[in-house]
Amino acid sequence: MTSYKTRQSSYGDPTGCMQGTRVKVLEELDTWASNANSSKIYWMVGMAGIGKSTIAHTFCENLEAKNILGGSFFASRASEKTRNARLIIPVIAHALARASPRIKVEVVKAIEDDPTLAEPTYININEQFKRLIYNPLRTTAGEVDKLYKVVVIDAVDECDNLEVVASFIKLVLEWASKIPLKIFLASRDEYRIRNAFGSRGSVRFYLHEIEKDVVENDIRKYVETSLARIKDHDSDEWPLSSEVSGLVERSGTLFIYAATAVRYITNGGQDYKTRLSALVIHGQKSINKFETDIDALYVHVLEKACGGKELHEVAPMRDILSVAIFLRNPLPMAAITSLSLEQNAHLYLSGLTSVIHVPNQPGAVVAPFHA
Fold it and tell me: Coiled-coil intervals in this record (predicted)?
């Protein structure tokens, strides 16, 4: 569940970057990963919804194609396991062992000496890191691939215990120069994470500082390609260029805005044309200083879901939505149903799938796409 291939996302079905987007960022990451003389640590920083996880996903695919992916850990508040920071070291050790028979011998030997090393409850993460990652890599240095292995760790800010995350970062900064391993981390700019990095040797890349026109071009390509997939064969004049431009403008640098809008339009079925037009028209309304573009998008989606309903029909939807939004950790539908006292929680939320992830699998959690 923590690998990029099996990751869960707070923003819906996880995927990589659409072909032809994020080209410059991915090229820079490729250069960093391939250069033996570059910094051993790369920290990609960005606000929520800007596309960090999507980039990290594609970066993993590119690394695996070159046989230099050492492992991946994609944290997510959508799962108890993937938000447990104490799983990071065991998961990386397991991935490195699978990538190299020589490393596997050393990792297995360490666990045979102390079986508790691989447990997420192991208290001393310094010792855990040293014996499961540092020692095996140090011992096999020169015997395995000469290229550095790269470990990708995404969304560490979504982990429950940021103190453990901070301790892990400090360990990596202290020991990475002595082993053939590079670490890529992506997160929001959380104080404890930033403080752990301090001014020590690492590349720090702020995703939201990319030139706006570069991001806009990527978002435009995403919007045009996505809308082309849903239009009828006889809709040659749709979408209008003005509508696409309006949607791109409202998205700014947030891919999550564009993705939410596309999902909302797609869910409209035969009404996809009117949904796009309504979004653009609604987006042209003035936004006060306390409201962002994505606020306006959510307001529009909620207004559409509640349109034509009586107050007593809207009330249970509001109550269930409140439960889903204000939970510290997401819960499955059955738990939300019991908390809300509404037997048809799934039915009420089904009209809000543009902004709320409503899973079909039993036990999967309900979560806002943008949190």
Answer: none
- Residue 228 inside a domain? The answer is yes
Pairing assessment for the beta strands 149-154 and 181-187 based on DSSP bridges: parallel
Angstrom CA distances, 247 to 55, 242, 281, 346, stand at: 22, 9, 10, 30
- Note whether residue 85 is domain-resident: yes
183 and 101 part of one domain? yes
> Cβ distance 57 to 4 under 8 Å?
yes
Segments in the chain below pLDDT 50: 286, 290
Length of the chain counted residue by residue = 371
With CA atoms as reference, report the closest residue to 10 among 62, 92, 85, 82.
82
Q: How far apart are CA 243 and CA 231, in angstroms?
A: 14
Query: CA 220 to CA 205: how far, in whole Å?
Result: 23
Q: Which of 209, 241, 267 is the last residue of a domain?
A: 209
Q: Is the dihedral of CA 287, 251, 190, 329 positive or negative?
A: positive
Task: Answer yes or no: are the C-beta atoms of 184 and 152 closer than 8 Å.
Answer: yes
Quick check: is 1 in a domain?
Answer: no
160 & 235 share domain: no
Closest by Cα among 143, 131, 139, 41 to 93: 131
Instruction: Find out whether 277 and 264 touch, Cβ atoms under 8 Å.
Output: no
Mark whether 261 and 273 lie in a shared domain: yes
Residue 62 · residue 142 · CB < 8 Å: no
What's the number of domains the chain is made of?
A: 2
pLDDT digits (tens, 9 = 90+) for 253-308: 888 888 888 988 988 888 899 989 988 887 655 455 545 667 777 777 788 788 78
Looking at the fold, whether 228 and 158 belong to one and the same domain comes out as: no
Residue 127 belongs to what domain range? 23-209
Closest of 187, 299, 208, 186 to residue 252, by C-alpha:
208
Give CA angle at 157 (155, 159), nearest 5°. Answer: 90
